Amino acid sequence: MDFKAEIIKLLTKETKLKDADLNNLISIPPDPKLGDYAFPCFKLGSNPKNAAETLKKKLKLPKFLSGVQVVGPYLNFYVKSEVITKEVLTKVFKEKKDYGKQELGEGKKIVIDFSAPNIAKPFGIGHLRSTVIGHSLYKVYNTLGYKSIGINHLGDWGTQFGKLIVAYKKWGKEKELGKDPIKYLLKLYVQFHEEAEKDDKLDDQAREAFKKLEDGNKEYLQLWEHFRELSLKEFQRIYQILDVKFDSYHGEAFYNNILDKTIKELQQKIKTKMSDGALIVDLEEFNMSPVMLKKSNGATTYHTRDIAAANYRLKKYNPNRFLYVVGSEQKLHFRQLFKVLELAGEDKEKFTHADFGLFRFPEGKMSTRKGKVIFLEDVLDKAIKLASEIIEKKNPDLKNKKKVAIQVGVGAIIFADLSNDRTRNIDFDWDRMLSFDGETGPYLQYTHARASSILRKANSKVSSKINFSLLSLDEEKAVIRLLYDFPERIVKAAETYKPHHIANHLISLAQAFNEFYHKCPVISERDEQMNARLLLVDSVRQVLENGLRLLGIKAPDEM
């Protein structure tokens, strides 16, 4: 039974509000003592408290409700404890890995643009956020019935390749490039900027080199393709460790052949003009700086390529929504991009920039130009090594120790990111990133392993045919309530583009479960009680697994 839907039916009869409005208004109170659902009565009159009192008197309560209470301007609904217990535990048992799945996006597509590292540059810790936030949202939307399309819009074009080509032709050695491609290319990139500070002609040479690249210079294209191939090979190793996949790797360069066509089509729809030799779209009336489509030397820009990419994706995928998971420092870029697309006739509601805060470092801002980069692979390797050491101390006989160490180490890094509200900056702290204590990914994985261990020790078949009235203690009710709320948290993550709603919910569930485990013996001689609690344990195990999967984290059965 969908309790919220039933309450909406009840309220529809007594208010003039539509089902969709009621669905948006009804919420789950933060404190279970305030009921299971709350309806704000602000739209029912100038005095919402009186409106709530009046509405309460009119309602004929269905059997699943134990009562309603007026709390200020809210009318709070209380579902009978045993009814919720039976509903949620039966549903988790029946649906298993599918618990939490919904059909809100059935028949709809969403294009998610995420990760997007720059070719010939290291995959640094700064790329982690876009990668894991985007990957989690990809999974969340699939779970809600959408068809997610994950695109890795690689930074494989632009003036930086002019710089790299100039650097490689001046100082590069093929033998050194073959040994450790990314670190060697980074070394050349840093060297270019050091030399450019002494000789400003180098920047002009770089711009000229990129223009030749855009115009199809054979030698430069071969060098670019070589750098791209080496970079993709390195990136794939990182994606394999993170278990992240994409439906498309079309980067900026993919759109090079359609840029002129894109600009011509855009000029037929909106007004453009020349400014100091550059072709621009003037956005002054919208309080924004202009969008440059072509530089004075004829080279294109990020905006040109992003417009071309949006047009291509509209034609190829015909999506209902576009989501760009890109850092907060690009807010203006996307405001400008969306405005140009809107002026060209696209529905502005389709496009969303899910921005995120940056990693902040004690030693100051990371800079590829200066070679100040923390390689993501180094962070992952450290986490896996630490996990391996902890497993060796606590459970040296564990099977598949290496595999579990990778799952735990990588899980720690991903959760350290996703447990934060994406809009906030994160202070990079090695100890915190690698911590396995407190509200962490390994804590959730350990709780999942503990639940799995209880089920193995019980050596009894879990069944949904139990006496649900036996699960009446406060500790049991707290766990059940959190299990019941899990699907709502998935919807919340999708509506806000914030996976931390799922991450924080899983922490609350694990904490409630561990409190239950310490206070309520599961394995006992009282078969009825044991069977009821085993179903509860199995439900927690399943929901932790499902939730961790949505975050891109594995749930080992043993640790």
Structural notes for this entry:
With 559 residues, this protein is α/β, with parallel strands linked by helices. It has three domains: 3-79, 2-Layer Sandwich (Gyrase A, domain 2), CATH 3.30.1360; 114-256 and 319-360, HUPs (Rossmann fold), CATH 3.40.50.620; 376-551, Isoleucyl-tRNA Synthetase, Domain 1. It is built from 20 helices and twelve strands. The strands form four sheets. A four-stranded parallel β-sheet has the order 5-4-9-10. Strands 1-3-2 form a three-stranded antiparallel β-sheet. Strand 4, helix 5 (128-143) and strand 5 (147-151) form a beta-alpha-beta unit. Helix 17 (441-458) runs antiparallel to helix 20. The model has no long low-confidence stretch (mean pLDDT 93).
User: How would you describe the shape?
Assistant: flat
Mean of pLDDT = 93
Structural class: alpha/beta
Q: What number of structural domains do the residues give?
A: 3
Give the helix level as a range of percent: 40-55%
Rg from Cα: 28 Å
- Poorly predicted runs are none
Q: Roughly how many Å apart are the termini?
A: 37 Å
CATH fold type of the largest domain: Rossmann fold
Number of helix segments? Answer: 20
The count of strands amounts to 12
In terms of DSSP E residues, the strand content is 5-15%
Q: How would a crystallographer describe the biggest sheet?
A: 4 strands, parallel
Multimerization status: single chain
Write the CATH homologous superfamily of the largest domain. HUPs
Give a topology summary.
Layout: H1 3-14, H2 19-25, E1 37-40, H3 48-58, E2 65-71, E3 74-79, H4 81-95, E4 109-113, H5 128-143, E5 147-151, H6 159-171, H7 174-179, H8 181-198, H9 201-214, H10 218-242, H11 259-269, E6 273-275, E7 278-281, E8 291-294, H12 302-317, E9 321-324, H13 331-343, E10 351-353, E11 359-360, H14 376-394, H15 401-418, E12 426-427, H16 430-433, H17 441-458, H18 474-496, H19 500-519, H20 527-551
Parallel strand pairs: 4-5, 4-9, 9-10, 11-12
Antiparallel strand pairs: 1-3, 2-3, 6-7, 7-8
